[in-house]
Amino acid sequence: RLASAIMASSPLLGLPRYPEAVAANWPLQRCDLGKTLLEWVPIQPAIGAMLDGCDVKDMTDEQVAEVKAMLYQRKVVVLKNQVLRDEDIENLAARLGWDGNRIDPFGKSLSNAVQTIARQEGQINRFGVRWHYDSAFLERPPEITLIYGVETPAVGCDTVFTNTELPCSFLDQKLKERLSSYHINDSYAMVHAQQKRVDPDNAMLSDPSVETWLRGRTAPLLHTHSKTGKQVLRACEPYSTVVEFEAPQNKAAVYEVVDYVTSPEFGCRIHLEANTLVLNDNEGSLHKALNDSPAKRTIK
Fold it and tell me: How many Å apart are CA 168 and CA 234, to the nearest integer?
């Protein structure tokens, strides 16, 4: 209801609306991936690159560096036909720069780097169904998220991603200067309230860090990406409010950002097959799980 009201109201931040924002900047982006060692295939003009036939366990350091560079360029990379154990995923994460500390608190385990998320046949999915950055409420949210398909249906249970860096590049300097005065608070509060209702035994609810997560982190709405140096509109549905507004406008402004950056031309839809590994630039994209199938699904 809130989102519907926002779309009918005057914009608070002055962001362009879809589809005019896209039409005014056509074409969005060319699919030139440059000279590469590996045989990448673009997924969509604005986002994504796919690779098949190269086992990540056998990649050279130079090839892993190319995967990381392609990820920051294209925001999502898909590596097909990967037979991986938990230790293989951890090893790849380390080669991508993970320091060995616990990062993302979601999942069955709060101590392991690789966490299992399972949904039984017929179970309603409530996990990750809004546009979000993973664990945005942490003091240091993960820079990269890895998603690995263990057991997935032939159709459905897809994930959609959107590039939040590219739409920012279309904003004029005057609007960027205005947006630079706003800040986002990313808090665990809304997800916390939902978990208390539907999953009261969730280990996150009793985690020693829960009060810190509820306070959240405050950062600029117009964020400079730590790796690309480009500006990103960094706000998401489940965690963010705009500090400079009172409720409900503080959430309405977030929906205005999300409405702009999730224009279909900025995104892609990925079907996570078994033994497929998806890497997501958590700093420069949003994603959400689609709740379109009752099928059993297990991912890591």
Answer: 10
The one-letter amino acid at 59: M
DSSP state letters, 215-273 = H-EEEESEEEPTTT--EEE---TTTEEETTS-TTHHHHHHHHHHHHHT-GGGEEEE---
Q: How remote is the C-alpha of 244 from its chain's centroid?
A: 24
Residue owning tokens 């031309």: 265
Helical spans, DSSP H, in 26-163: 61-74, 86-95
Name residues whose C-beta falls within 8 Å of residue 15's C-beta, 6 or more positions apart in sequence.
Answer: 21, 171, 175, 256, 257, 259, 260
First CA to last CA distance, the chain: 33
Cα separation, 223 vs 229, whole angstroms = 9
How many Cβ atoms sit within 10 Å of the Cβ of residue 128? Answer: 18
Does this model's pTM top 0.85? My answer is yes
Mean pLDDT by 10 residues, the chain (300 residues): 49 77 60 82 94 94 96 97 94 88 57 75 76 91 93 90 93 93 95 83 82 94 96 95 96 95 93 96 95 85
